[in-house]
Amino acid sequence: MSGFIQQIINGLSIGSVYALMAVGYSLVYSIMNFSNFAHGGIIMFGAYFGFFFMTLYKFPFSVAFIASGICAALMAILVERVAYKPLRDRRAPFLYFIISAMGVSIFLENIIIATIGPTFRTYPEVFSAQPIKIGNLAIGRIDLTMFIISAVFLVLLIYLIDHTKIGKAIQATSFNMKASALMGINTDFIILLVFGLGGFLAGLAGVLFGMKYTVYPQIGNITLKSFIAAVFGGLGSLQGAVIGSVLLGIIETITSGYISSQYRDLIAFVLLIFILVVRPMGLMGKVTEDKA
Amino acid sequence: MKKFLSLLVVFALVISLFSGCAKKEAGDVIKVGWIGPLSGDQAVWGQCESNAVKMFFEELNNNGGLLGKKVEVVAYDTRGDGTEAVNAVRRLTSQDKVIAIIGPNSSGQAIPISSILEEMKVPDIATVATNPKVTVVDGKVKPFNFRICFIDPYQGAVAAGYAIDVLGFKKAAILYDIGDDYSQGLTQYFEETFTKKGGQVVAKEGFKTGDVDFRPQLTKIKAANPDIIFMPYYYKEVALSAKQARELGITATLMGGDGWPSEQLMTMAGDAVEGSYIINHLDFDDPEVQPFRNKYKQKFGKDSEINGYLATDACTLLVEAIKKANSFEGEKIKEALEGIEIKGITGNIKIGKDTHNPENKEAAIIKIENGKYKFVEKYAVK
Amino acid sequence: MLSWYYLKGIIMLAGIYLLPVLGLSLLTGFTGLFSFGHAGFMAIGGYTTAFMMMKLEVPFIPAILMGGLFAAFFSFIIGKLTLKLKGDYFCIATLGFGEAIRLLLDNIQYFGGARGWPGLPLKTTLITVIIIDIIAVILLRNIIRSRHGRNMIAVREEELASSIIGIDTFKYKMISLVISAFYAGVGGGLLGTYLGFLQPKIFSLTRSTELTIIVIFGGLGSLTGSVVGTILLIALPEILRSFANWRLVVYGVIVVFIMIARPEGLMGGKELSFDVLRNLFRKRVKEAKAEGGK
């Protein structure tokens, strides 16, 4: 029994990592309607920012954490300006955005390898490696912190979107960009804001991820899982992204623990297909019909 | 206009290709190729190899070169991919006209290049391609493929033999990378030897290349209560899985292969790997290893990975073979390589004629004590 | 100078990759579906071909056809389940499929697992690749020009409108997917017999994205674009080889640059055929005449 509870704890902790990544991605999706495959690259940069802030400049953790978020946000905005805005201006179909995003992600990963090298880097210890023990169960301190930080920032974000004026503007833009522009919303600014927010979350996710799993140029690849999680939950829905992530985390752990760790991703894939067959827009996604 | 611009870029690149080849073909320079991953997730090892190879020949050139000629190293990136390796070797053998190739670092790259090597008659010495089929397929040796490392069956058997015969452990668990050829190879032979010697593999769990969280598998392993956990993969995953294992309260001894040794492992894993055993190619504290170790660190500002040592030995092997053959012809170098004996950093190496593998290479058993690699003994499985 | 031996290798590789690219071109460029799983179909084709040749001793050409058919069969099942999905949902489903196939092959020790399958017969020659490529292009061109092809394009342009005027959109998406998987499967078979070796790692997600990048780079809705794109983009990493560590950095920049500078791709939906050349020539002649008349 304690094994099972431990697995659930593992699943929640893995899920909360996915969630922090999936939300930023889903946020951009809700406005731009395309999968921002450069998100992983921004997360990776966030991890490196945090690492260098803490080791080179000796920032305390909290300062480094927020500073990395801000730097990552600026980077995300830069990526938007360089790689997406020209496409936006000419109303290119979503395929082009995806390819452009892939180009960016190839670039980001390899620029790190070419400049500062592919070596793995370890964060200085902020949280004790000793887990909190409850009977036979172990809860990592970093995991707990990550879980809490993720939860706090996600709640803040959802509050921002649902209850502030700027949030309403974001919602309006995501619903219909053209009409929002006509209603006097500066959609270009909203898009930058959304990329900035997504980038900020990516930066935080990067730091937390780097602390727990070390820093290396291929960190971005893990976002693949959060893309799948976001689809599970329903693209464009923040709540969906969170639920999808936690669900995926738990499904993966339970599969590894009780069915087969060798076939874990195969089983997760079959489940994904099953969910999509039953609910083609994911768990929380809105079913939209084509506008004729 | 923009179409024109983009085409211009492409043409400029094509021209840069041609200009790159038009370099002067001086008569007193010969070329040696190196292939391996300079980008992608194996770049750490590839870049180290390429550094070591370049350093080796630089030194050789400063000391008068080889048979009166200077050696130029041509290093190409493969991203760790088999098809890219094929392209790189085609280019090395036909366009750059290298006399021999060092690398690659994995079997997935070393196996598909063999037909080209045979066609172009250029010998290749792989650094850490450990699949037996790199040099021998269906009992027939591939004429131009050589290697400097020991093979999966040997390493897996040594690990299992040492665990059961010397350490006296009867219950083993294995955690391995499903997507990695090296990891699967070691797992298979460890399991075979361990069960043959009367041990019991109580859990065998897999993960996928790129995974960072192993707690679900480790929780399951914990329930099986093994004496020892065999972890045949590279040190990044080792550090993560070892830390997570300790976090979950697993106290079993950990054991691994030559993917482990790296100065990085200690910083990454800390106490978690304390008391673990490693099957290695060499003893890091051996006085004969120090010159290379210090030179590399001085030159590149960081410690060499295990690949650097093996790549250097591959270079020594090649140079000795060329001296023995007194020729730069591929065919003659190949013949000279067969049966050659050298004293390398990783020990005495004798290349078998029928296997093209280093024969009788003893594995070094290393124990991690107080955050240091401590040499225990040379060991060969009985 | 560029050696023929090296060049031949690149041409063969480009010729092999042309097949999955053509398939994907039909799916993405002409039907508007986006797949990240075509490396998975290539893997199925490759392993089926290897199985046919090594275990059942089927001759080369029937074996690669079987590889294609088996990939097509798989795509039919996947299509049944996922073709109703929209945009990114379909995209992620194919991505998951590609990864699942690789995981499956990693685990199947009969085919060598992750350690790969060495010693396959080296049957792929430059001539076979070129002949198969030519047949593939002609076949695909005829499909696109047929009524079916026009219906596929209609599905791409206006899915809702097409279904209203009575086009069975699901059926045309399915046809497109199955054909494209067949092409990818044949390509996988050729790749295996070119390398003499198969390993699940070869068919990674990176491979799938490369294929998609080629299709878009060449221009959606243009077979000529796919051909030109394949040749350029397979050659590009080779051209960049001297950049060593910076190779993929430059590659990424070029991909983004092309998207920004020319998002419709190289050919932008146009085909290069004899008609176009003739028209171009005629125009020139007319202009010349007009000038001569002055």
Automatic annotation (TrEMBL), chain A:
Location, primary (coarse class): membrane
GO biological process, one term: D-alanine transmembrane transport
Keywords: Amino-acid transport, Cell inner membrane, Cell membrane, Membrane, Transmembrane, Transmembrane helix, Transport
TM stretches of this protein: 12-30, 37-57, 63-82, 94-117, 137-161, 182-207, 227-251, 263-282
A family per Pfam: BPD_transp_2
UniProt xrefs under InterPro entries: ABC_transp_permease, BCAA_transport_permease
Superkingdom of origin organism: Bacteria
Record has ATP-binding as a keyword: no
Cellular component aspect of the GO annotation: plasma membrane
Similarity annotation: Belongs to the binding-protein-dependent transport system permease family. LivHM subfamily.
The name this protein goes by in its record: High-affinity branched-chain amino acid transport system permease protein LivH (TC 3.A.1.4.1)
Species of the source: Caloramator australicus RC3
Automatic annotation (TrEMBL), chain B:
Xref: InterPro entries: BCAA_transport, Leu-bd, Leu_Ile_Val-bd, Peripla_BP_I
One annotated GO biological process: amino acid transport
Pfam families: Peripla_BP_6 (PF13458)
Gene3D superfamilies in the cross-refs: 3.40.50.2300
Keywords: Amino-acid transport, Signal, Transport
Leucine-binding protein domain span: 30-369
Top-rank lineage group of the source organism: Bacteria
Signal peptide residue numbers: 1-22
Stated family: Belongs to the leucine-binding protein family.
Protein name: Branched-chain amino acid ABC transporter, amino acid-binding protein (TC 3.A.1.4.1)
Organism: Caloramator australicus RC3
UniProtKB/TrEMBL annotation, chain C:
InterPro entries with a match to the protein in the record: ABC_transp_permease, LivM-like
Membrane topology: Multi-pass membrane protein
Location (main, coarse): membrane
Location of the protein in the cell: Cell membrane
Protein name stated in the entry: Branched-chain amino acid transport system permease protein LivM (TC 3.A.1.4.1)
Taxonomic source organism: Caloramator australicus RC3
Alphabetical UniProt keywords: Cell membrane, Membrane, Transmembrane, Transmembrane helix
GO cellular component: plasma membrane
Signal peptide positions on this chain: none
GO MF: branched-chain amino acid transmembrane transporter activity
Domain of life: Bacteria
Transmembrane segments: 6-26, 60-77, 125-144, 177-199, 211-236, 243-261
